[in-house]
Specification:
407 residues, alpha+beta, Immunoglobulin-like, four-stranded antiparallel sheet, extended
């Protein structure tokens, strides 16, 4: 019997070992397009290749594609690499515990590096003060806040509190208390580089700048052209990434937002002007037709602007093909005249405002503010509050039952 013991142990090892798990997913570019027929490699933690496969091809060169699968993979830590034919591919770290792993869609998104404040001394010298100010002698406790309004005027204060539409602060110069309307504030940050408040206008400007070409002007006077720009979403020492297609290494450059004085977009901004001009034309036609419908108490004005496909062609739809192009061309000229391509961020000095106002009009915000006298009483009514608190009442009932059961 002893001579068969090694064989029995060997068989027990083979039939008792982990058969492995399945890893599946699909690869895509950052814009969402699936990667077809790309080399996909499963690596261990030392980046040694374990398995290789290729992503599925697209049907009719348009539909599907990008799917991959690895089978019989033991539990452990791995790295999945997808070759996109460029310097920046897809690399994703995974961990298999005790079940099959579905990764969903993985993208080649370049993540911003994470930063944290480390060793610093507590003194009157601040960690970050991008606007030159005179520090208060002997003050090593209060954190200074810089309030920048929409015109670029900056004021160094000690922010006390924030209300729904106002910020209350104490001036360092004369220690008097004052307040500012948040509708007139561009953004507020402290001397540690943390943005405390960010206006809707500033967010909209960042949104319009994303993925456009242009150039940066820094506070030290340097200028940098870029083919693409991306603003980091975090508010703690936020960074701005610029991409440069002329650089064969596809190198991404990171800059502190507080080092940037101005961002001016290139010719790609015309796309934004065309979009706004088209929408303005559509809104105008919609408003005129709605007024005619209400005036005539008939839907005939709506029918009149529709094209007539039966010869001889009739109808007033020529108004549509006239107004929309005129509004589009007018919007392009207006944006060029008002220099809408220029976006200012951090002022150079406290007493040096921006050349232009940074307010961005929002139709949805205007409608929301105008509707407040009507919607506010409705939202504060008892039926609406009763509906909003239905989940809270369920939780309270459940807690009461648990309490009664425990008693």
């Amino acid at each position: 019997m002893k001579q068969f013991l090694p064989i029995l142990l060997f068989l027990a090892t083979i039939f008792g070992q982990d058969r492995g798990y399945t890893i599946s997913g699909e690869a895509a570019y950052a814009n969402g397009n699936l990667v077809s027929d790309a080399a996909v490699t499963l690596l261990d933690t030392t980046e040694k290749a374990i398995q290789k496969t290729r992503s599925s091809k697209k049907i009719f060169k348009k539909y599907g594609g990008g799917k991959f699968k690895f089978e019989n993979v033991p539990a452990g830590d791995y790295l999945i690499s997808v070759d996109l034919g460029t310097r920046t591919g897809i690399k994703k770290r995974i961990k298999i515990v005790n079940k099959n792993l579905d990764l969903g869609t993985i993208y080649n998104v370049v993540e911003f590096p994470k930063y944290s404040l480390t060793d610093y001394s507590d003194s009157t010298l601040v960690l970050m003060r991008r606007i030159p100010t005179t520090p208060v002698s002997g003050d090593s406790i209060n954190i200074r806040h810089i309030i920048v309004d929409l015109n670029g005027n900056a004021n160094t204060v000690a922010a006390d509190s924030f209300a729904r539409d106002s910020v209350y602060y104490t001036n360092f110069d004369n220690l008097t208390q004052d307040s500012s309307d948040l509708d007139k504030v561009y953004f507020i940050y402290n001397d540690y580089g943390v943005i405390i408040h960010q206006s809707r206008s500033m967010k909209d400007r960042m949104k319009e700048l994303q993925r456009r070409d242009g150039y940066l002007i820094f506070h030290n006077g340097d200028t940098l052209h870029f083919d693409n720009i991306f603003f980091e979403a975090v508010l703690n020492n936020p960074e701005v990434a610029t991409f440069h297609q002329k650089d064969s290494t596809i190198h991404t450059v990171y800059h502190s937002l507080f080092d940037i004085y101005k961002v001016k977009t290139g010719p790609s901004y015309v796309e934004n002007s065309v979009k706004k001009g088209f929408c303005n034309g559509v809104y105008t036609i919609g408003g005129l037709v709605t007024f005619q419908v209400l005036n005539k108490k008939s839907f005939s004005p709506v029918v009149d602007i529709l094209p007539d496909i039966n010869p001889p062609i009739k109808g007033n739809y020529g108004t549509v093909i006239t107004i929309i192009p005129l509004f589009t061309l007018g919007r392009i000229a207006y944006d060029w005249y008002k220099d809408k391509r220029s976006n200012y961020f951090v002022p150079k000095h406290e007493n040096e405002p921006f050349p232009g106002n940074m307010f961005v009009f929002s139709f949805s915000e205007w409608v929301w503010k105008k509707s407040q006298p009507i919607t506010k009483p409705i939202m504060n009514s008892k039926p609406v509050k009763w509906w909003k608190n239905r989940k809270l009442r369920k939780i309270q009932k459940r807690a009461a039952k648990l309490k009664s059961a425990s008693d």
